[in-house]
Amino acid sequence: MRRLLTVGLAPCGLFVTCVWGLVRAGSFTGPSDWRRVLPVTAGGLTATVLALIACAALLALLLQPFQVRAVRVLEGYWDRWPATAGLAGVLIEVQRRRWEALRERAEGAARDEAARRVRADAGRRLGAHPAADVLLPTSLGNALRAGELSAGERYGLSTLASRPRIYMQVSNRMVDALRSTRDALDAAVNLCWSFLAVAVMSGVALYDEEDRWWLCGGSVLLAVVAYRGAVVAAQAYAGLMHVVYDLHRFELLEALHHPLPADQESEQEIFAEISASSHVAV
User: How many CB atoms lie under 10 A from the CB of residue 111?
Assistant: First the structure.
């Protein structure tokens, strides 16, 4: 129920309410009259609220199968579209330069306390990025890829291939933590898309009302805030994925009827074998 409200209903309700307000105000056909937006009777207001909730719920149900695609577009998986493939290359280069700047700062000399704090912060931020040769065009994509390519790889496991299997071994508390963080990520992504859609609809409806353009600018600003929130949630989710492999990788071995390794070298060999068989199965 909480996921339905935060991930689906709230973002869709925001968009539906905005479009309804613009239509009621007559913004698409002429100058806006905002006095016409709210119904004058209590019964009319109740019916309007119920209708908006129903429309938002229907829209959320229609969009729910596309949740993964909504996240992946903001991650920067744009190579399949010729119109965005070139932009992806440009933004990857921007991300690579930022990565190089962070690395130089993290490896720089620290002559005083302030410099040590700067170096430590740069090292922390660099750790939330994947390697330079696998960077994605966006901060959200890099935050998620950092977890996807390192959580299990530290032990010889392919994270993407083994994640569905190890997820079945995690404790209830870890499941709750993962689910809560993923809900926060999906909710922030959906809010970002909703604010962008509101900005577009407001721009179409209010293009001839210059004194109302601040609504478009405010919507874009809120979309940026929601996107930054999605990046923070993605970093937390990637961190939890590391914890999953730290705590439950041996339970995965037991579930697959493999013997526990005697040392780190044999652990790497066993997990490499499991990863290879998982890729073949996929």
Answer: 8
C-beta separation of 150 from 159 below 8 A: yes
pTM for this predicted structure = 0.88
**238 token code pair:** 């990637």
Closest CA to 240 of 183, 156, 190, 193: 183
225 contacts 135 by C-beta, under 8 angstroms = no
Residue 169 near residue 246, CB atoms below 8 Å: no
> What does the alpha-carbon distance between residue 117 and residue 113 come to, in Å, rounded to a whole number?
6
Distances from the Cα of 235 to the Cα of 39, 181, 199, 240, angstroms: 44, 10, 27, 9
Quick: pLDDT tens for 159-190: 888 888 888 888 889 999 999 999 999 999 99
**Measured between alpha carbons, how far is 249 from 271 in angstroms, rounded to an integer?**
9
The full set of domain ranges for the chain reads: 2-76+138-281, 80-136
